[in-house]
Predict the structure.
Amino acid sequence: MDRQIDLVIVGAGPAGLSACIYGSRAGLSTLLLDNGAPGGKLVKTHKISNYPGVAEIAGTDLAMAMFEQATSFGASYEYGNVVNVDADKKVTLDNGDTIHAKAVIVATGTKERLLQIPGEKEHIGRGVSFCAVCDGAFFRKKDVVVIGGGNSALEEALYLTQFVNSVTIVIRRDVFRAEKNIQAQVEQNEKIHIITKHIPKEIVSDKGRVSGIVLENVETKETQTISCSGVFPYVGQDPISEMLQGLDVLDEKGYVLVDSNCETKIAGIYAAGDVCQKTLRQVVTATNDGAIAAQHAFHQITGM
Ligand code: NAP
């Protein structure tokens, strides 16, 4: 199948949904594509409490509200796994379908980075999880380990405490990367224990399910095994930008380079949200990018 659309948005997280609101409301024929449920990381986030005007909201509720608004101005939403975007703004899906767009906004976000240690991949779904919100309830009254000291690790550790017996957070330095207010909540929570200056070396199992994790002291190189039923790695993110690899618009880590209009150096190809090279990855900065990209695309397409 081959189609013509004014604006194709790849990714239905906050950036893509915001772009969809601005593009379709301005009158562009707009197609929103995603290879998963709409909402992006919002649907994996327990609570959002730093989105202006909304004191606190469940991630899934904000995702649904954004999605309903984004599709209320005539945009189409379809499942689609985009494998390539070329310089002529031809979007190719993994089933071979192509869409010719006047502008493309890539808002694909990031994916969780793996620990890359033995026992990790083979136990995903058997004790290794990258989503506390999705899987936390499976670990009721169990002991779990969270790896990492960023916002994601600490927020998810706090979320897990409502189900589990204990959460052990393992960090490789002796300081957290997360914001101070989240650190304070973690330090006050009696269910959370912290192990500093250790890195994970192996996830071990019993009868096919996670039973522990081997940690190595970064200074002494001594190892110890912590018994646990679950391991939640939160060691950062990598951009989902493979579809742009042919265009020379990525930095060395794969993040998309854009200007203040969220446009790449190729006219009509934009990026918005976490997939961009930027310093602050938040829901509010993602929605900001989506609005800017779509508004600029509108001006470019219509000449208005
Ligand atoms: P992050 O901020 O990059 O933190 C990654 C953590 O994992 C760091 O503590 C890092 O240690 C550790 N780490 C990395 N590789 C490791 C390894 N191989 N072994 C052990 N530990 C390792 O990632 P994130 O928490 O996923 O957050 C990503 C972005 O989203 C950030 O910009 C964050 O601020 C944002 N975010 C914001 C919110 C919020 O505002 N509420 C929530 C979630 C995420 P070092 O510190 O030693 O490098």
The two ends are 31 Å apart (CA to CA). The mean pLDDT is 96.
